[in-house]
Design brief:
The chain is mainly beta. The protein has one domain: Tachylectin-2, Chain A (5 Propeller), CATH 2.115.10.20. It contains one helix and 21 strands. A hairpin with a 5-residue loop joins β6 and β7. The longest helix is centred in the last third of the chain and has 4 residues. It is globular and about 45 Å long. The two termini are about 15 Å apart.
Length: about 300
């Protein structure tokens, strides 16, 4: 079997906490990234300024090459945006939809409850509320970036598994139906350290269209051991190009595990957690992740290494 691994950028961490900005003094992590039509990379990232990460705002950063980032001084999407996110907004994923709006799929947090919330924007500074597709405890969501036979498909996590639902309403405001299990957590790989089965699985960044199907980077959570907490790793799967409710491939090994110091030690130890996959239009797919819930990192997945899987 061909080895599939994410190659880390040498410039990691790409973004660190900044004591000069109160809203991002402690932790910056879990970002969504999109490459715009003008070639500019745009990032929305989660920033926390309390030790328990009880409130999170969303910041904006821009890059010409996907590695060197300029962070704006103020958050662009704030906690308490509406009654659904009084405790913050977490883990944004970005999709440019058929109406040329950028749709943001993030966790809208209230005390004791987190649900998938959908926002949209034209300019990354002004945001409109779209709604909550599934009114229950839910997170880690993104749509497939184009309709299939007139349906919009949403991948999300009802713990501990990945699910998929769809709607004919291409405004994404209503009509979600046919919710079904996509990948059970016990279909993922065993822990690389203990060979324990996983606790849960979820989508990382938005699916990427490939010649053989929809490439989905996933995150998997394992118990590392009773003293050392949990282990977050990244894997991948491929969905049928015409019926994304069908899984045609699940990779049997992780493609990224915590190895660098800022992934092993931080606010939450042993974490690589991704909300961003970007097709560069060239030979690479860029993947971005939060390291130990403290910094933002990135790397490349070479399409050459995915030959026979989805290229």
């Amino acid at each position: 079997m061909r080895e599939v691994k994410i190659e880390r950028f040498k410039s990691n961490p790409l973004i660190r906490p900044d004591p000069r900005k109160k809203w991002m003094t402690l932790d910056v992590f879990n970002c969504g990234v999109i490459k715009d039509d003008d070639g500019l990379y745009k990032m929305l990232f989660r920033a926390a300024y309390t030790v328990n990460q009880s409130h999170s705002d969303i910041g904006l950063a821009l890059s010409h090459d996907g590695e060197d980032w300029t962070v704006f001084n103020k958050p662009v999407l704030r906690s308490r945006f509406n009654e659904y996110c009084t405790r913050g907004i977490e883990d944004p994923r970005i999709v440019k939809w058929i109406d040329n709006w950028y749709y943001i799929f993030a966790t809208a947090c209230m005390p004791g409850k987190g649900r998938v919330g959908i926002w949209r924007t034209k300019n990354f500074f002004d945001y409109e509320w779209v709604g909550i597709p599934i009114d229950k405890e839910d997170k880690d969501a993104s749509i497939i970036p184009e309709p299939i036979d007139g349906w919009a498909y949403l991948i999300h996590r009802l713990p501990p598994d990945m699910w998929i639902t769809r709607t004919k309403d291409l405004t994404l405001r209503a009509g979600w139906q046919d919710n079904q299990l996509l990948i059970s957590h016990n279909q993922s790989y065993l822990s690389p350290n203990t060979e324990f089965p996983p606790e849960k699985i979820g989508i990382a960044g938005p699916p990427i269209k490939t010649p053989k199907g929809w490439l989905v980077i996933t995150h998997t959570v394992h118990s590392k051991d009773e003293y050392d907490g949990r282990l977050y790793t990244l894997g991948l799967c491929v969905l049928d190009p015409k019926d994304p409710a069908k899984v045609i491939y699940i990779h049997p090994k992780p493609i990224l595990i915590p190895e660098d110091p800022w992934e092993i030690e931080g606010r939450v130890r042993n974490v690589v957690f991704s909300c961003a996959t970007v097709d560069t239009g060239k030979d690479d797919i860029y993947v971005y992740w939060g390291g130990a819930d403290t910094v933002i990192c990135g790397g490349r997945l070479r399409k050459e290494d995915l030959k026979g899987i989805c290229y």
